[in-house]
Amino acid sequence: MKKILFLILAIFFSSNLQANGNFTFFLEKAIKNNLKLNAERKNLQSIKQSQNISKSEFFPNLTISGNQTSTTSSNRINQNGASLADTNLDSENKTISIEQKLFSGLKGLNTFKKSELENQKANLELNQVEQETILDTAKAYFDYIYKSKNEKFNISNVNLFERQVESDNVRLQKGEITLTDLAQSESSLAAANANLIKAKTELLSSKRNFERVIREKAPNYENLSELVRLNLPKSLASSLELSRINNISLLISKLEFEIAIKELNIERSKLLPSASIKVSKSENQDFSSTIDETHDETVKASITWPLIKGGENISSIKKSTFDKQKAKLLLEDTQNTVVSDTSNSWSKYQSSKSVLEATKAQLKAAEIANEGITLEYDSGNTRTTLEVVQSRTLLLEARIAFARAERDFVISQFELSKQLGTLSVNSIN
Prior knowledge:
alpha+beta
């Protein structure tokens, strides 16, 4: 019964570690806790309120006002020199008015359309930061795995050379090897320890970066899953087409150009006449002696046409025209950059795939060669200590190269997906 219970607990904890150690688990943590991403969420909320403000241009303004006045006069003297009685002058006024803009030179409409574009831009900027967070998380996550493997390989290498030095000391006493052979083993052990120190330092740095980006304590890398797959195009042409449609930087640049057009239209509309109508009703009461009460109802229609404003309006139009031209040039530059960056990302993705295959073959060959040379050396055959050292060094380099190629290949997928504008939590399998 105890064995069964132990087995159940072991399975439970193993599955729990796997569930909490996969990439999406830490990605969700990063997206939730990222400060820059949360700041962009607040910015989006602010932009939405600005959009609501722009809508107010189309609705009437309702105003209620009122005042009450009380005046007391004293110490007055008449023509005969006699003091008069104090007087109190009391009055009350209440006014309610409603004003509706009828036409504002299309300023209100352009302002509203501009706010809609700014809201779209804020959504895209939020998406952009989210994609950057995903990419940063992938880099931190898989670099931590690579650096952990690097430390593991170097620890194993140190252990191998420690055993070799012990074995070579025995063989030296038996006359099977020379003092030079022992010195070579000791030198290799010293180099292995130096490489291990370097690997530990790099791992510590990678661990700190993991915790900074994800804002979560880094677990032992054995509990992390490396199984991540992204759906990517099969050709460069397909990649370029996707980036033209979905690339976030390009979409933002297009919106900035449209916003610049709306801003120019707003400045031009300031030169056009505006019209409004205002209806008000007021009530006045005088309580000084006898109550006098008056009621007024007013309907006021007004037209305003700004003609000269010290040249400010003309200068504002010119400035907006230059801003529009600037936005157009930046859009063209972004279009060119997206094509170039997408091509580079695709090449990097294909290259990293080829490097991964090559290092895999290199590792397999190094493992076979090292096993054979080590067996021949241990059996006392013609293999020298130098050959053993070189074989183990090549094996270590092959292991590290393959682990690094795995990391680079995975990250290249995330970089390409971000360039295509398709990188999201849902795109990761």
